[in-house]
Design a protein that fits this description.
A seven-stranded mixed β-sheet has the order 3-2-1-4-5-7-6, sandwiched between helices. It contains seven helices and seven strands; from the N terminus they run H-H-E-H-E-H-E-E-H-E-H-H-E-E. By secondary structure, it is of the alpha/beta class. A hairpin with a 5-residue loop joins strand 6 (189-194) and strand 7 (200-205). The termini are far apart.
């Protein structure tokens, strides 16, 4: 699926804009609800158009942000960042999050990224986030987290089914799943921040 999306620039930008529309409410709420007071830098992994980075920078004037995505995405993100006048504090950086080290930052975010992959790759990304953070840093995923009992968040369950159909081995997960995987990587403290609708931010602290 991703290979098809990325082979045509116009199709890629259409996809990125669609994802921005879906994510806007959650990213804006996160930028306002998460306590950034003790942090200075953020790297949004799989940052697409740079929307999350821009919303965090706009709501928190002391923050400098990196939107990290594949090199084909970086020019699109750079243009969007410039359009909202945040190029002095938000940069688009090209790279492959499975191949390259993640940029170092106080906060590492992944908005609707972790659910794209199977368990092995999920754990790889979590370990890479851990390595990129300082002591006290925060790793944040924004997803339609499934409730631990798997009985209430029907949207999260259906999203998980959708990911399985699209990718064959991808799936959504619960807050306790996330905490368990992060604990394996070395994270020690966790919290869940409700966002809009069925979505939440799961936070792991190093």
């Amino acid at each position: 699926m991703f290979a098809k999306l990325y082979e045509a620039p116009e199709r890629l930008e259409q996809f990125l804009n669609a994802m921005s529309g879906i994510s806007a409410g959650n990213f804006k709420t996160f930028s306002q609800k998460f306590d950034f007071a003790k942090y200075k830098t953020l790297c949004d992994v799989g940052g697409a158009t740079g929307q999350l980075s821009c919303m965090v920078a706009a709501a928190n004037p002391h923050m400098s942000c990196i939107s990290f995505d594949l090199p084909k995405v970086a020019p699109i993100a750079t243009r969007k960042i410039e359009q909202v006048g945040l190029a002095d504090r938000v940069a688009a950086v090209g790279g492959d999050f499975f191949v390259d080290p993640l940029p170092k930052a106080d906060v590492i975010t992944m908005g609707m990224i972790l659910h794209d992959w199977n368990l092995e790759k999920k754990k790889t990304l979590i370990r890479k986030a851990y390595d990129a953070l300082p002591e006290g840093g925060a790793f944040v995923v924004i997803e339609a987290l499934i409730d631990d009992a798997r009985r209430d968040n029907a949207f999260g369950l259906l999203m998980s089914l959708n990911m399985l159909i699209e990718f064959g081995d991808a799936f959504d997960y619960s807050g306790s799943d996330f905490a368990s995987w992060c604990r394996e990587a070395g994270f020690r403290h966790f919290e869940i921040i409700p966002l809009t609708g069925p979505s939440s931010a799961a936070v792991a602290y190093k």
